[in-house]
Amino acid sequence: SSTYVHRIHTETFEKDSLNIGASSPHGIALSSDGSTLWVASNQSSHFFRIETSRFHEVGYQPENYKIDETVQDSYEYNDGVYEPLELVLNSNGQELFISCSDMMINEIRSFSTVDGALSNVFELDMTGRQPWHIVIDPVQSILYSANRMGNTVSVVDLNSDEITYILDDTMNMPHGIGISSDGSRVFVTSSAMMGGGASYLHVIDTSTNTVINNFNLGTDVIATGLAVMQGTCSNCD
């Protein structure tokens, strides 16, 4: 599998690439000033800090950190234990959150962006929820996780560590997740990837953490990742 992270220049569409040496780089998170890119290897249970100014540097190897102290030191070994999937930074950029998608692990972990040290472990309430894509509310200290096999969305209060769940009968393998710029709406896709049926876009009101709308995207659609345009209205349900 690939060990490369690619950067595309939006004006010229030129691509440059960095080999981090670890298999299946997946989630990425970019610091607000664009100087640091975080990426995790889905197979080796390591994550990396990339200095974006060194992308072109021959022989550059980004700093790497282990998801857990029990993980092997070599990022070239595919242990397949934690299966880190998606990354997101908190509002001040001091903590990095990573969803650990292995069905037996069932965790979201946070790490210091200063030294990569483990800050917190959020354990979901049952084996097999499989946290997938994650977002953080820009207004409140709340993290939302689309739980791929749990057919739920986790609501993680980052102040109290309390975890609750949003359920809806139409959720079928939730995958992508995004949040409006004002934090009032969370958007989740259901991929229906394995069981068949319709894919959906779910709209969640964050003031009540309830699903307020479900848009049927069709039965021949596998809805996965999504992006929310900045400045989208909050009262356009």
What topology does this entry show?
Blueprint: E1 4-8, E2 15-19, E3 25-30, E4 36-41, E5 46-51, E6 63-66, E7 84-89, E8 95-100, E9 107-112, E10 118-123, E11 131-136, E12 142-147, E13 152-157, E14 163-167, E15 174-179, E16 185-190, E17 199-205, E18 210-218
Antiparallel strand pairs: 1-2, 3-4, 4-5, 5-6, 7-8, 8-9, 9-10, 11-12, 12-13, 13-14, 15-16, 16-17, 17-18
Structure description:
It is a single chain. The protein has 237 residues and is mainly β. It has a domain at 4-123: Methylamine Dehydrogenase, Chain H. The protein is 0% helix and 45% strand. It has no helices and 18 strands. It has strands at residues 4-8, 15-19, 25-30, 36-41, 46-51, 63-66, 84-89, 95-100, 107-112, 118-123, 131-136, 142-147, 152-157, 163-167, 174-179, 185-190, 199-205, 210-218. The protein has a 4-stranded antiparallel sheet, with no helix packed on it. The radius of gyration is 18 Å and the shape is globular. 38% of the residues are buried. The mean pLDDT is 94.
Which fold does the CATH topology of the domain at 4-123 refer to?
Answer: Methylamine Dehydrogenase, Chain H
Shape: globular
Number of helices: 0
Q: What percent of the residues sit in helical stretches (DSSP H or I)?
A: under 10%
Architecture per CATH nomenclature, i.e. the level-2 architecture of the domain at 4-123: 7 Propeller
Average per-residue pLDDT, rounded, comes to 94
| Spatial ordering of strands, largest sheet | 3-4-5-6
One letter per element, helices H and strands E, the order comes to: EEEEEEEEEEEEEEEEEE
- Approximately what portion of the residues adopt beta-strand conformation? over 45%
Q: What does the radius of gyration come to?
A: 18 Å
